[in-house]
Amino acid sequence: MSESKAKVYEAEDVTVTFDAHRCLHSGECVRGLPAVFDTARRPWVDASAAAPEEIAEVISRCPSGALHYTLTGGAPETPVHPTTVTAVAGGPFVLRGHLVLRGADGKHTHETRAALCRCGHTGNQPYCDGSNDCLLQGKKWT
User: Fold this and answer.
1) Which of 38, 44, 96, 106 has the fewest Cβ atoms surrounding its Cβ within 10 A?
2) What are the pLDDT digits (tens) for 27-75?
3) What does the chain look like in DSSP terms, one character per residue?
4) Which of 46, 49, 52, 54 lies closest to 18, judged by CA?
């Protein structure tokens, strides 16, 4: 995840980061913990509104990897094994597992979840940014 693009939301025992450039609005967060993730509120993330473990569980369902968490004194997110790649009809490749992504600049990042562009229209390579017509039309892709 590109930390320079991420917004940080902190509570006593959890830090939540959000990279808006990677969010594809699957809604896992707002459906999973609406007290924490409320798009009608500013800031839209209140990391103190639920137990850190609950926040971590909901964030781990974010298919794009736009949301990440760090538990104070806790284990980092465990990647699924084996790594999975799902081609979403009219949408991105959704990857889960121990991922090492290398950008065009040669830099690499370690990820546990990512939605990668497969249409070539993204402005955020290698991540899908919703530029694909199917995603822009609001069709469910997860």
Assistant:
1) 106
2) 999 999 999 999 999 999 999 999 999 999 999 999 999 999 999 988 8
3) --GGG-EEEE-SSEEEEE-GGG-----HHHHH-TTTB-TTSSSSB-TTSS-HHHHHHHHTT-TTS-EEEEETTSPPPPPPSS-EEEE-TTS-EEEEEEEEEE-TTS-EEEEEEEEE-SSS--SSTTB--S-SHHHHTT----
4) 46
pLDDT tens-place string over residues 86-124: 998 888 999 999 999 987 788 999 999 999 998 888 888
Name, in order, each residue with C-beta under 8 angstroms of 38's C-beta and a sequence gap of 6 or more: 30, 44, 46
The CA distance from 36 to 59, in Å, is: 11
- Provide the token pair at 112: 């546990």
